[in-house]
């Protein structure tokens, strides 16, 4: 059996999911090479900071929506059959306000703002709330059962699955994407390099994708458990501020967010924004704290900042040759990397297979 030597560059959720699926084929010999690995907390490394959950955001009949559709079933199966992956089901409620439709956060939430969204038959127990149950200012709301991922458990779980399938992990960083071809653990050049470097593809030699930019997110992680996941399409505190809340599985704490600040690179939490985040959370979900308590009733674990890797035109999943090296890109997933991870990985793997077939035919 011919062995395909593959290097996956990047160990965020996109790189690890792609490596995991590739490693299931015994014909593939996988080396994952990354500057940052699960367990690291660095502003360059977005995946650990994510909530993370499944709240579909792709517009109907787009690649984005297709990738999210393809990701639901794998996440659902992991939740049901592999509790060690750190994913659980959560009751979810989404509140929508028509006045948010033209704001930055409203546009991000646009699919969630639809009273009859495409994903109603994908998530579990979807219902629209009756109008008489809506608070003043809320135009529609929906409830359903979705999943929330404890990233501190799930990312290492993906590493473990890859290692069980024979993948090798190495720390390294490269100035040029083509240099990663020399990093395969066999000592031989890789047949394909998968570039899953997220926002770092903006500065990675051979890629230098200037369509990439950050959308800064800030969170407060607390020990309080409201018992449900929630979100709203916007706030009155500013166009780039929003509210979302989810409790990570396996004791991972409750994430309170947030903001969606485009082109902002600041890695430090803003104390004033943190206060607004906490006040919004209690206003929308009073059961977070004991009756009569304000933000002083929140038991804070930590504050955090992550930079979502946004890309004009959407994620880049395509193949090309760079300095003689076959490269398949899978990056630029913005704020939906987890909930599109399996769909995007499947698309990248299709391109890997096409690339390998072309190489094999060229040798004949």
Give your account of this protein's structure.
The chain has 364 residues and is of the alpha/beta class. It has one domain: NAD(P)-binding Rossmann-like Domain (Rossmann fold). The chain is built from six helices and 15 strands. The chain has helices at 13-23, 63-81, 104-108, 151-164, 271-284, 341-363, and strands spanning 4-9, 28-34, 87-96, 124-128, 140-149, 168-171, 192-195, 212-222, 229-232, 241-247, 254-259, 261-262, 300-311, 316-322, 325-331. The strands form two sheets. Strands 3, 4, 5, 8, 9, 10, 11, 12 and 13 form a nine-stranded mixed beta sheet that branches. Strands 6-2-1-7-15-14 form a six-stranded mixed beta sheet, with helices on one face. The mean pLDDT is 95. This is D-amino-acid oxidase.
Give a brief description.
The chain is an alpha/beta fold and 364 residues long.
Strand content: 25-35%
Distance between the termini: 16 Å
H/E element string?
EHEHEHEEHEEEEEEEHEEEH
The CATH topology assignment is Rossmann fold
Rg, Å, rounded: 21 Å
Q: What's the overall average pLDDT, rounded?
A: 95
Could you name the CATH homologous superfamily?
NAD(P)-binding Rossmann-like Domain
Gross morphology is: elongated
